[in-house]
Structure formats: C-alpha cells, structure tokens
Amino acid sequence: MTTEEKIYFQDFMPGNVCFGCGNNNPEGLQIKSYWEGEEAVCRWSSEEKYHGWANLLNGGILATLIDCHCMCSAMAYAYKIENRSLDSNPVYRYATGTITVKYLRPTPNNKPIELRAVVEEVKGKKTTMKCNVYAEGEITAEAQVIAIRVFDSNQSNAGNPFVE
Ligand SMILES: CCCCCCCCCCCCCCCC(=O)SCCNC(=O)CCNC(=O)[C@H](O)C(C)(C)COP(=O)(O)OP(=O)(O)OC[C@H]1O[C@@H](n2cnc3c(N)ncnc32)[C@H](O)[C@@H]1OP(=O)(O)O
C-alpha cells in the first residue's frame, strides 16, 4: 500500500485570515481540503464551543465549513483545469455568491465529520459546487454553493475589496 502525501489547498493561500479556512487565523476553524479523485474532501473534528443544541453541531458553523471548503475547492479546481500547481501564477481567489444548505438530520458535535464536494459547472467567473456532509457514514446535510472569482492576479485589482 502506498501512502500518498495530501496536498492541502489552504497551504497555498498565504496571508489567509478567514475564520473558516485561514491558516493565518489561530482562532479559526482551520479546515484542510484536498482532492480524492474528483471529490474535494475535508475532515474536521469539532470542539465543545461549537455546540448548537447540546452535543449537536451549530448550523451556522456547519454552513461556514461548507462555504470555506467550497471556496478553497473552487480555487483548487480552477488551477487543476489549467493543469498547473497551486503555487503557480496567476493567483485566483473566490468569494461566496450564494450558499444553500439543506440540514437533513442533526450533525453530532462530538464525532468527526466529512465534507465531500464536487464541481457541477464552471461558467465564466462562476463555479457551482455540490457539497455533502457525513457523520458516521450518514449524510447529515447537502448544499449547493456558487463561488465567484473575485481576484485574478493577471488583472488590474485597483479598488478590489478582496485584496488584502
Ligand atoms: C487575493 C489576496 C490574497 C489574500 C490572501 C488569501 C485570501 C483567501 C481568502 C479566502 C477566503 C474564503 C472566503 C470564504 C467565503 C466568504 O466568506 S466570502 C465573503 C462573502 N461573500 C461576499 O462578500 C461576496 C459579496 N458579493 C460580491 O462581492 C459580488 O456581488 C460578487 C458575488 C463578487 C459578484 O460580483 P460581480 O462582479 O457583480 O459578478 P458579475 O460579473 O455581475 O456576475 C458574474 C456571474 O456570477 C453570477 N453572480 C453574481 N453574483 C452572484 C451571487 N451572489 N450568487 C450567484 N451568482 C452570482 C452572475 O449572474 C454572473 O453569472 P453569468 O451571467 O455569467 O451566468
């Protein structure tokens, strides 16, 4: 059996202070996303402070996990389809246009969860993603997320609010 080292998308986003996905936010959720075939996967373990109902994960935190996993995965996909590495130029960054979450059943707060996202469509600046959340092998939420490319280092970014 070979053990392949995972390439985490967030490790290629220097200066990212985002609460959900920023390596540079020590108080944040610090998610890590990587490819498993065509699926972008994120495994995450909660903490007691993220309870909603006792022992259940807060729904807003779950939406944040989905959101950030999908933004980082939209970015990684853009590099993938251009057949280049995540540390190459031009640099692309994405922001959430729309997120729709259907909470199917309670998500435990004391068990690891897994997010699995796929790209459904890329059209211009817009990437549409589907993301499922699993706990103990059962789906607990499904989401559709629309990511919009808001930064392209090849273009003029004067006045762009999405630049540090
Ligand atoms: C860079 C420096 C390094 C820094 C270091 C790294 C930092 C790495 C940080 C990562 C961080 C992750 C972040 C986590 C996720 C957030 O938290 S992101 C924050 C929450 N989201 C926002 O604040 C976005 C606010 N909204 C906006 O800024 C603008 O409305 C948008 C969404 C960028 C759209 O901009 P726009 O230029 O008006 O878009 P436009 O060209 O008109 O439309 C393009 C297409 O998108 C569609 N569209 C437009 N808006 C929407 C929408 N809201 N919903 C759906 N579709 C839309 C349009 O219909 C159009 O579609 P087509 O006609 O082509 O089919």
TrEMBL record:
It is an enzyme of class 3 (hydrolase). The keyword Hydrolase applies. Signal peptide: none annotated. GO terms for biological process: fatty acid metabolic process. GO terms for cellular component: cytoplasm; membrane. Pfam families: 4HBT. It is found in: Cell projection, Ruffle membrane; Cytoplasm; Membrane. Belongs to the THEM4/THEM5 thioesterase family. This is Acyl-coenzyme A thioesterase THEM4. It comes from Rapidithrix thailandica.
